[in-house]
Design goal:
The complex is a heterodimer of chains A (277) and B (352). Chain A has 277 residues and is mainly alpha-helical. Chain A is 64% helix and 0% strand. In chain A, helix 1 (6-21) packs antiparallel against helix 3, helix 6 (139-173) packs antiparallel against helix 7 (188-214) and helix 6 (139-173) runs parallel beside helix 10 (242-276). Chain B has a domain at 9-87 and 160-184 and 230-347: 3-Layer(aba) Sandwich (Rossmann fold). Classes of the chains: A mainly alpha (277), B alpha/beta (352).
Chain lengths: 277, 352
């Protein structure tokens, strides 16, 4: 075989040395050395130490390199010693700093900070405003409740009008000289008022039952006035329990409006029946 | 194809390509003697070239080895006109840095009442930086960079080859790690200054062009890194003795160096007794110790068959002074033959 140059020989020898250290060879060599004297020294090779572990000799971390090193002799450009020192603690620190600079999401900005602060404040302030807050109700539940209330209202009006209609007919059709208690015109207003009070009581009892069942306060959730009143902070107006009072007024208004509606119905029906007979 | 490896450093001593030669190993195995010997042999073999021997060990031994005082500036060894030595004193270098900071503060017309100025006068900077771990290696590295810069600018005497008498293993590895660490750090600094540049300018650092300075430093460090990992330019010579701990540490050192992509192809096994060839001065203790050394030598032969394995004798006296070092160093160029060269180990001059 032909003579090889000195440089070529050096390169071949270098590759041979690398080969002996690759694929667990490095640890085996240390094992061989320590095994002869039963030493307790570490046989973990710096070449095979995982990146995040600290080498016993130096305080910086090491990374295995055989793959890169086997190319070393062939190509000088493959000498990338820097690749093996990625985990220097100082470098890690600067990496983290750079990441903080680069990644916006990891850096809490002023707006998100204010947002979270606002959230926290609104949460803590809710009970302080004094709202008798019902448990959170979702939108569908509210819609269902409204449907039940409206249906109750409609049935109540229908039933009342259906009862009132024959009563009005009897009163109008019977002569003025009727001596019957129910058909006597002078007794009409007393009977009508009593009927109104009874039906309204029944209506409100039924409404209360629905509210208890659905855990929804109809006034608080459906009335715009109640919503406006609840926005007024306590102490701004010189009225104590403004919300409670507003709720009471609204309830009276509801009762009155139902009563007025019934009176209107009675007047119209009396007019119609009087015209017919 | 002849792939046998010479049991000497003849090829390294006569190498014309090597620019950086590191000599290192465990403490007390003869690193300084070996590095001095390599430097002397190289200087003798290549008289037209200039060699520099730098000690990066904080506890310097070069002055003692040659028997003359060397300082932070390169000085020729008496009796040799192509070999210079220098010892980097971290404390002196730090004092220089401190003095520079003080003079700069004074030149800027800083008030004497300035607390920072007062601290600097008291050498606070030197004390502070002196306590940073690894500062010795960093300063040695800075010195190497300064040296390269001066050579490039033609400001000082140029050296063809620089031989490093390194500190014990841990220190040396940190020193060799510096180019990597620095280049990574500078890379990150570059990214940061790109982002923080405007802010730094606002803070009054605008008159200093940080980015260009960092880039300059980075290119210097990169060039050193490239040179240190080029096997034609840089090599590491391991020195050990034929004992368990030394062998163990040498193996780890070699593996670490390979992980840095550094070339290591020579091992000097120092302080060997060769007792069986020394019938005249033989003793029971020497025989026993030589038996132990042989046990490890066999292992070394087996483990490092692809390395230049140089077996050096333990001399009767201390190897100090140029003459003694020259006598001893010849066995690096041509391997020691116990039968023929045995008498030389008794011929060392006694230093008074």
């Amino acid at each position: 075989m032909s003579e090889i140059s000195e440089a070529e020989k050096r390169r071949i020898l270098r590759e041979r040395r690398q080969k002996k250290l690759a694929n667990g060879g490095a640890s085996n060599r240390l094992n061989k050395i320590t095994g002869q004297v039963d030493s307790h020294l570490s046989t973990e090779s710096p070449l095979e130490t995982p990146k995040d572990q600290v080498s016993p000799i130096i305080s910086a971390t090491e990374t295995p390199i055989p793959a890169a090193y086997t190319k070393a002799g062939v190509n000088k450009e493959s000498h990338r010693a820097g690749d093996f020192k990625d985990n220097d603690p100082q470098v890690e620190l600067f990496k983290k700093l750079a990441e903080l600079q680069g990644a916006d999401k990891s850096t809490p900005d002023l707006f998100s900070l204010l947002g979270s602060l606002k959230d926290g404040m609104s949460k803590t302030n809710e009970p302080a405003v004094g709202q008798p807050q019902i448990n959170p109700v979702d939108e569908k539940m509210l819609q269902y409740h409204d449907y039940l209330v409206n249906r109750l209202k409609a049935y109540t009006i229908l039933i009342r009008w259906l009862i009132l209609l024959p009563f009005i007919y009897m009163v109008v059709s019977s002569s003025y000289a009727s001596e019957m208690f129910f058909t006597k015109p002078s007794n009409f207003f007393m009977i009508f008022t009593s009927f109104e009070i009874i039906t309204m009581s029944i209506y409100y009892q039924a409404l209360q039952r629905i509210e208890e069942k659905n855990n929804v306060n109809t006034l608080n959730n459906s009335s715009i006035i109640m919503k406006i009143v609840s926005m007024v902070p306590e102490g701004v107006l010189p009225i104590k329990d403004l919300k409670g009072k507003a709720a009471l007024i609204l309830q009276y208004q509801q009762v009155l409006s139902m009563f007025v509606t019934d009176i209107c119905f009675v007047i119209i029906m009396v007019g119609i029946f009087s015209y017919l007979y | 194809m002849d792939l046998s490896v010479d049991p000497n450093l003849h090829s390294l001593i006569n190498s014309t390509t090597h620019k950086w030669i590191f000599v290192g190993g465990k403490g007390g195995v003869g690193k300084t003697t070996s590095s001095c010997s390599i430097a002397i042999q190289m200087a003798l073999a290549q008289p037209t070239k200039q060699f520099l021997l730098i000690s990066t060990d904080p506890a310097h031994n070069l002055s003692d080895a040659f028997g003359e005082k060397f300082g932070k500036d390169a000085r020729k060894v008496t009796g040799m006109n192509n070999l210079s030595c220098m010892e980097i004193d971290p404390n002196a270098a730090l004092k220089d840095m401190n003095d520079m900071a003080v003079s700069r503060a004074n030149a800027d017309g800083t008030n004497d009442d300035d607390p920072l100025g007062g601290l600097l006068q008291g050498g606070a900077l030197a004390e502070l930086t002196g306590s940073i771990p690894g500062i010795d290696e960093a300063l040695s590295f800075m010195e190497v960079m300064k040296h390269i810069k001066r050579q490039e600018n033609g400001e000082s005497e140029t050296f063809d080859t620089v031989i490093f008498d390194t500190a014990p293993t841990g220190h040396t590895l940190r020193f060799l790690q510096l180019p990597n660490t620095l280049s990574k750090l500078l890379e990150k600094f570059g990214e940061l200054t790109g982002k923080l540049g405007p802010m730094l300018n606002m803070m009054g650092a605008g008159n200093v062009d940080i980015a260009s300075k960092l880039n300059e430093l980075k290119s210097n460090v990169e060039s050193i890194k490239q040179q240190f990992t080029d096997p034609d330019l840089t090599t590491f010579v391991c020195v050990c003795i034929s004992e368990f701990l030394s062998l163990y540490e040498t193996e780890r050192l070699i593996q670490e160096l390979i992980s840095y992509d550094m070339d290591v192809n020579s091992i000097i096994v120092n302080q060997l007794l060769f007792a069986e060839d020394d019938q005249e001065h033989n003793c029971k203790r020497c025989q026993a110790r030589w038996k132990m050394q042989k046990k490890y030598l066999d292992q070394i032969d087996e483990l490092y068959e692809d390395f230049h394995l140089v077996k050096m004798p333990l001399c009767a006296g201390e190897i100090r002074g140029l003459n003694n070092l020259t006598k001893f160093s010849q066995f690096l160029n041509k391997e020691y033959d116990p039968a023929a060269d045995g008498k030389i180990i008794y011929e060392l001059e006694e230093k008074e």
